Sequence to fold (288 residues):
Amino acid sequence: MRIAFLGTGLMGSPMAERLLSAGHVLAVYNRTESKTEPLVALGAEFAATPADALRGAELVVTMLADAPAIEQTLFTRKVQAALAADLTLIEMGTISPKQSLGFKKKWEKAGGRYLEAPVLGSTPQAKEGTLVVMVGSSKDQYERWLPILERFSPDPLYVGPVGKATALKLALNQLIASLQTAFSFSLGLVRRNGIDPDLFMKILRTSSLFAPTFDQKLPRYLRRDFSDPHFPTRHLLKDVRLILDEGKAAGLTTAALEGVREILEMAVARGLGDADYSSLYEAVDPPA
Fold:
């Protein structure tokens, strides 16, 4: 199958590589052209523009940073003119339900078909094909594209119509942000009181308070090393802002999450926007 893959960053590149390894013909596009080079070396076709990538494609997959990037990449006159009838778009980035429904309306107006399929997981899972993929679409479209989605996940989950999967993804990302912020505060309090972090973790691991993500990020906190990001801080900040908008629209109290947003903004202001999102620790427990 000929697939246009748009967005070959931290997550998109290993996902595109999995499609290549399955024998699909890939045309790859990224706004920073150098990020397509490893895939081109593996046999993908370089596309200078999104319209070039779409030419002859049977499927379009996007893993772009946010809704404005999707808008600027796909919803130009040139791209829409190149859109073949019934061409399917699988949008896999994290956006809001409202944004996803808007893209569905525009894509279908141009004659295409649309699925949302946001993912839970980071670069290791993207490389291994063990992401959690949540699908919002019609049931027949889910079944039609299941073999493609299974390159990214052993069990892609059908959530419901477009809008449902993006809402579920935001609910899960809220936990990523809030859990790490809460853990950072507790760890900082322990360290500033001269308590051995190993003792803290020993107690925590035996309690119902423990989450595996704490152990995954602990070495970064202890070393204050947030290089080689699995998920950048600025992307988590983008997601938290989307979650706040959704929460307010749903009538939820967002006071706690407003604090998390402020902490992420502080981390970005410290120059940690492209560092791993665990860098929020630097805002919670600043180095002496």
About this structure: The first helix runs from residue 12 to 21. The chain has 14 helices and nine strands.
